[in-house]
Design the sequence.
């Protein structure tokens, strides 16, 4: 079974580039050049140098002793929260900004949900001196205020998306519209493994550093580079794809992707895409998305802005459909409790997104010797308001 | 021969095509507006089937789509409304919308329903040429339905030739790379682009759309193509006043 993209831009039934003609030249330019650029020695050197000296990689793989004792397994946390800017998102933005420079682009646009991708994009734009415009849902601007301030200080223009549910999906629509209107000098840094081919593959390659490092670190720490499980949360699916990437062909490693159930899968306020969705096209690729019978996209719901998205990347849809990955979901309440637990047992305040992955440990049963890696995709600073309100702190 | 081809044969220049959103401003308005437009001199109509996430559209058509969805418009309802289309309207009709509603309806079902009610073609901006060619072209042919592709100032000559080859009906020239509703500013660049395409002597007729909003831009477009398409400017009229008088007044402002 091939779990990676084929020459037509598909993962099994999913993927492709369903874009209006206005976007074709840009997407085609990317498609023709991305592998050539990424595999170029000077690109690789610059990318890895920045990941090391600027982002602070490799991020630690930390054996969380007290969580391990609680769950009766060896729980390792892949500490993407320790990256510069506080999440995995910067792995992708560093890669894409270097690529945009090589394509001669002068202006960068991005969408953001939790604001982590917006901050990561604004950061690399400041680093390289490029103009930056970030689209963000009006509701997310409210619930992730600290990140809005960071983007502004970094020099980005933050444009509120006021259509639809005023969250990540709508910010993505606005970013795509901007790209339609600025077809020549602009590069769109998509923040997850979504969008038209080659984005899902390109973003997965940039994020694959997560599993590349994890393998080495596991080998050093446990003697084997193969854990029993890897877990990650899924909004669009970039931290999960980064966490899965180098394990996908190790069929004895179980891949667990955790979606946001919101107030419950059947509550009508959920973002559990694989549970509630059907095959269709959203934001330029064929995947699984939450939609009505008529093909209208359903507004998702999650306490976590980064998971509040009605679709998943096409490679995830393929892993789901083939059964290679297990796709599960966690409610708002469960995730917030797991966030508190991790804070109190390990002294690590996780992003609410990442807390979804941690929460699933509660639902697994272990026999004491399993090695389990959880991708701690980001830190919880941006979520303090939500945590404080929820726990009455 | 389908009605689109016939139109271009009979009227090779100054074709005025109007876009509007089905079910807007009221659910039941779809055919009434078509009748008024035909009466007021429209040569062809593009009826938009609304989608929740129209990424090629600007605020006006986004808003009309949203309102139509809220009123209950969907493809089933639309095809029901179009049942007596051909007893009421003679000019060519295209359906325009995004690929996902069409996929959920089933592409074959969609084409069949179009053929049954007498729709002549469709425009699906986010259905890429490669995908169409591989999976859907045969179905469209079977139902004698034209599929219209877009060309922008950035589309390469090679690709335009390919689009021309695959097209039946006409080729839709986007006036500038933009979402709908940005008023066209005819610059030297725009004229050069229109002239470049005209010089390519495509086998299909061409229509220019996006940003055509008044007589001046309509006439300008008609110098370079067989006609032009007005969308946002008309939807704006409907959102303020959908009466026959308002529709006639708008149509007169373009053609007189
Ligand atoms: C910390 C963190 N984790 C996860 C996500 C979800 O994105 P993805 O599924 O692409 O990893 C986000 C998105 O903003 C995030 O900020």
Sequence:
């Amino acid at each position: 079974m091939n779990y990676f993209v084929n020459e037509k831009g598909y993962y099994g039934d999913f993927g492709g580039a369903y874009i209006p003609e206005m976007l074709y030249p840009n997407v085609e330019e990317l498609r023709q050049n991305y592998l050539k650029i990424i595999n170029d020695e000077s690109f690789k050197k610059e990318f890895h140098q920045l990941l090391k000296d600027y982002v602070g990689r490799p991020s630690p793989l930390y054996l969380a002793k007290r969580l391990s004792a609680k769950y009766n397994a060896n729980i390792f946390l892949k500490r993407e929260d320790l990256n510069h800017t506080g999440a995995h998102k910067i792995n992708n933005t560093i890669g894409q900004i270097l690529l945009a420079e090589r394509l001669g682009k002068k202006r960068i646009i991005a969408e953001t949900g939790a604001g982590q991708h917006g901050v990561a994009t604004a950061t690399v734009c400041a680093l390289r001196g490029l103009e930056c415009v970030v689209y963000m849902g009006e509701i997310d601007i409210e619930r992730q205020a600290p990140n809005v301030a960071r983007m502004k200080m970094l020099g980005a223009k933050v444009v509120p998306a006021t259509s639809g549910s005023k969250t990540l999906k709508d910010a993505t629509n606005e970013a795509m519209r901007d790209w339609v209107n600025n077809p020549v000098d602009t590069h769109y840094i998509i923040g997850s493994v979504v969008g038209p081919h080659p984005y899902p593959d390109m973003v997965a390659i940039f994020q694959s550093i997560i599993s590349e490092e994890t393998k080495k670190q596991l080998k050093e720490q446990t003697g084997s580079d193969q854990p029993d499980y890897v877990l990650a949360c899924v909004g669009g699916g970039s931290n999960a794809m980064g966490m899965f990437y180098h394990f996908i062909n190790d069929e004895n490693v179980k891949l667990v992707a955790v979606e946001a159930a919101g107030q419950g899968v059947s509550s009508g306020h959920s973002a559990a895409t694989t549970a509630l969705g059907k095959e269709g096209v959203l934001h330029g690729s064929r995947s699984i998305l939450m939609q009505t019978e008529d093909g209208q996209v359903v507004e998702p719901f999650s306490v976590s802005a980064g998971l509040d998205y009605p679709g998943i990347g096409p490679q995830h849809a393929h892993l789901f459909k083939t059964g290679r990955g297990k796709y599960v979901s966690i409610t708002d309440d469960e995730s917030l409790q797991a966030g508190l637990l991790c804070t109190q047992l390990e002294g690590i305040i996780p992003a609410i997104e990442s807390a979804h992955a941690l929460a699933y440990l509660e639902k697994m049963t272990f026999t004491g010797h399993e090695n389990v890696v959880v991708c701690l995709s980001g830190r919880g600073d941006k979520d303090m308001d939500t945590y404080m309100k929820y726990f009455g702190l | 021969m389908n009605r689109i081809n016939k139109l271009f044969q009979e009227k090779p220049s100054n074709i005025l095509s109007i876009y509007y959103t089905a079910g807007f401003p009221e659910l039941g308005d779809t055919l009434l507006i078509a009748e008024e437009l035909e009466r007021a001199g429209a040569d062809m109509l593009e009826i938009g089937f609304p989608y929740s996430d129209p990424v090629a559209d600007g605020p006006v058509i986004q808003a009309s789509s949203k309102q139509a969805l809220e009123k209950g418009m969907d493809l089933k309802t639309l095809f029901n409304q179009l049942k007596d289309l051909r007893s009421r309207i003679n000019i060519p009709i295209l359906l325009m919308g995004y690929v996902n509603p069409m996929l959920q309806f089933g592409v074959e079902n969609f084409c069949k329903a179009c053929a049954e009610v007498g729709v002549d073609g469709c425009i699906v901006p986010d259905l890429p040429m490669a995908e169409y060619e591989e999976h859907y072209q045969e179905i469209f042919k079977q139902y004698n339905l034209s599929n219209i592709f877009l060309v922008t100032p950035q589309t390469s000559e090679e690709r335009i030739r390919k689009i021309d080859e695959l097209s039946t009906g006409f080729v839709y020239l986007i006036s500038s790379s933009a979402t709908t509703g940005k008023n066209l500013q005819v610059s030297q660049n725009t004229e050069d682009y229109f002239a470049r395409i005209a010089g390519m002597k495509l086998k299909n007729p061409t229509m220019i759309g996006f940003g055509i909003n008044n007589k001046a831009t309509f006439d300008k477009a008609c110098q370079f193509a067989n006609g032009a398409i007005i969308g946002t400017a008309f939807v704006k009229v409907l959102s303020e006043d959908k009466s026959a008088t308002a529709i006639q007044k708008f149509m007169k402002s373009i053609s007189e």
Observations:
- The mean pLDDT of chain A is 97.
